[in-house]
Specification:
The chain contains 7 helices and 5 strands; from the N terminus they run αβαβααβαβαβα. By secondary structure, it is of the alpha/beta class. It has a 5-stranded parallel beta sheet, sandwiched between helices.
Length: about 160
């Protein structure tokens, strides 16, 4: 298993050591089902907010609860490996809950990052991060880049036009 892919319990210890070394911890999360340019730009921008970028990845079960029974298309272990291969990503941890609150509580990042499509008051963990002295950053999305749009294009291009 990739050293960058860690269980939440291990990550908590690692983050404590990084914080003692005065590293600024950034956390974001998502499904990252079919990695696209929007994801890459988003993750690079998130990394720019600190020293260490931790990505919380929704498990297969979690994605299914959020996106429906036909998702994810890519299994969690493969999604985690793809994310871990990106230079801007320092750690990936998979969570099984519908939202990353348990993981955010364990990590207590200095910066919590979400896409600008999320209203500030709807960002899970915002209150505890800000209460702990951290901040929340909303990053603009890349227009037209989405996994759902990719799926629509594939279906339309390869199945509906036959």
């Amino acid at each position: 298993m990739d050293k960058k892919i860690v269980r939440c319990e291990e990550l908590k210890e690692t983050v404590q050591a990084l914080k003692r070394a005065a590293k600024k911890i950034v956390f974001t999360n998502g499904c990252f089902d079919l990695l696209h340019i929007g994801h890459v730009r988003y993750l690079k921008a998130a990394k720019g907010e600190g020293d260490v970028l931790i990505v919380g990845l929704n498990s297969d079960r979690s994605v299914c609860l959020i996106k429906g029974p036909k998702r994810p298309l890519v299994p969690e272990n493969e999604r985690a490996e793809v994310l871990a291969s990106l230079a801007c990503v320092d750690f990936v941890t998979v969570f099984d809950e519908p939202d990353p609150l348990v993981t955010i509580r364990a990590v207590m990042p200095d910066v919590l990052v979400k896409g600008a499509d999320w209203a500030e008051d709807a960002i899970v963990g915002r209150d505890i991060v800000e209460r702990d002295g951290g901040r929340v950053v909303r990053i603009p999305l890349t227009e037209g880049a989405s996994t759902s749009k990719m799926i629509e294009n594939i279906v339309a291009g390869y199945f509906l036009n036959r």
